[in-house]
Automatic annotation (TrEMBL):
It comes from the Eukaryota. The gene is Tmlhe. Pathway: Amine and polyamine biosynthesis; carnitine biosynthesis. This is Trimethyllysine dioxygenase, mitochondrial. NCBIfam families: carnitine_TMLD. Converts trimethyllysine (TML) into hydroxytrimethyllysine (HTML). GO terms for cellular component: mitochondrial matrix. Its EC number is 1.14.11.8. Its main location: mitochondrion. It catalyses: N(6),N(6),N(6)-trimethyl-L-lysine + 2-oxoglutarate + O2 = (3S)-3-hydroxy-N(6),N(6),N(6)-trimethyl-L-lysine + succinate + CO2. It comes from Pomatorhinus ruficollis (streak-breasted scimitar babbler). Residues 55-130 form the Gamma-butyrobetaine hydroxylase-like N-terminal domain. It is found in: Mitochondrion matrix. Belongs to the gamma-BBH/TMLD family.
Amino acid sequence: MWCQRLVWLLWGQRGSTGRRWPRLPQDPGPILTALARCHSTAPASPCCAWQLHQDHLELRYGSTVMRLDFVWLRDHCRSASCYNAKTNQRSLDTASVDLGIQPQAVRVDETTLFLTWPDGHVTRYGLEWLAKNSYEGQKQQVMHPRILWNAEIYQQAQVPSIDCRSFLETDEGLKEFLQNFLLYGIAFVENVTPTKEDTKILAERVSIIRETIYGRMWYFTSDFSRGDTAYTKLALDRHTDTTYFQEPCGIQVFHCLKHEGTGGRTLLVDGFHAAEQVLRQAPEHFELLAKVPLKHEYVENVGGCHNHMIGVGPVLNVYPWNNELYLIRYNNYDRAVFNTVPHDVVRRWYHAHRALTTELRRPDNELWVKLKPGKALFVDNWRVLHGREAFTGYRQLCGCYLTRDDVLNTARLLGLQA
């Protein structure tokens, strides 16, 4: 109680109608930092220092020093009147919060932050929750844990394929498959009946199939039935698909149903591993590839197929708060006219693009896989580039694109971080 009395003396508290702290002065920080230590009943507690500023609260919890804006603290209140815990939705009208709001009282114990607002409303925050959800906490975390790989790393990991029956019929099999997929960006299912119908059943186990200009399930041979190099027997350099979509497709499924000939191995390259090497060796190149927007374009006039798609975005896409890479958009076949930056940036961008291409084309980054009937491959199209060597003979391939949100949703429901 002596701490509260000290507050009233220092701030001139008057009246006998109740002990309400007055509106905070312009910078009461040094006083309240000392008082925070008084409020702590456990000197060894990780939350033993906090300081109030004119527009935010500075709070140290463990090794994390958080700076929490008062408007943010009011907006994220989890009380019953502000947040519907059943639907996990905000009930508070954010636009009704005074942008100059300040708490009338602040208290911190070993586990909880308490704020009393001018209208008497009390907000409570668990310190663990704040440390996790603050900007400073998010900077220390990754959204998607991954294992970056080259061919040797992946082969030495001996990542197992999942049996089709286990994948389709058990949560354990599905979870193991998704864990492999999340960590490496690729995963295999074995003993799949080599038909388009059975491949469709496989895909729908993890996601809704994304319908595109190619339909839901695509099925092709080298008959050039579409205006795309993929419908030939030619080799394909490493690339990601649908860069010409504003949101490139998230996951791609491949299943070779038949091949009577030679060649045709599939090439896989971890784009994030290559980008990480660029970041280490030439961070200015990484930054430029993450900032300069490009246009990718798909123009098709073959038979009854008429399409003109344009997608815009940088080669590398990162979360701005922690610089974590989440999408690579790389396809030299479909890159449109480069006219999105002035001339003094163009040459620097080409140097950066060359640095990334050099990493992507290093032989030790190339994982070659022979797809055979019964072995289905799932590829994270936002991370792993794929290609193909030239082939001879008759080759049938089927597959589809999956909605990324639904794959990650399935993974989270099984307890995985995704």
